Amino acid sequence: MTEKDPLIQPPPYGPPPPQNPGYLYPPQPVPAPAPQVVNILPTSFGESSVACVCPNCHKHVTTEVNFVVGTLTILISLIIFLLICWPCFWIPCVIDSLKDVEHRCPNCKWLIGKHKRL
Ligand SMILES: [Zn+2]
Questions:
Q1: N or C end: fewer C-beta atoms under 10 angstroms in the chain?
Q2: Confidence band for 18, pLDDT divided at 50, 70 and 90
Q3: How far is the C-alpha of 99 from the C-alpha of 84, rounded, in Å?
């Protein structure tokens, strides 16, 4: 292959576009930044429902509260079982004020936050 081969040579281009050195393009409008979805989550969850934006479905919701057995519940049950009266070990498992609190999205059931007693 040589430089003179007409099959390999690039096709002839037209004359270069005229340069306009004195012409300045108008400044391009800067696109506005896309609005960001800010997940406004409370810093701490308590025992009552909280209004926030769900991080999963991005809807403004009031959390659904569920009481679940947590560390404090098990610890008190163990103390009752070992030291006080073993047949009564289950009592802390039915007292909501000894349980952890889960905050879930009522729309998608996503766990948004949790309030732990311990
Ligand atoms: Zn959700």
A1: N
A2: low
A3: 20
Residue appearing with tokens 């430089």? 3
In the prediction, which pLDDT does 7 show?
A: 59
Q: Tell me the sheet residues that pair with 94.
A: none
Question: pLDDT value at position 33?
Answer: 58
CA of 67 to the centre of ligand 1 (A): 19
Q: How far is the CA of 76 from the centre of ligand 1 (A)?
A: 33
Distance 114 CA to ligand 1 centre (A): 15
Q: What is the mean pLDDT of residues 30-51?
A: 73
> How many Å apart are CA 81 and CA 7, to the nearest integer?
93
- Rounded Cα distance between 63 and 105, Å, is 5
pLDDT of residue 43: 81
Spatial contact of 44 and 74, defined as CB atoms under 8 Å apart: no
Q: How far apart are CA 76 and CA 47, in angstroms?
A: 19
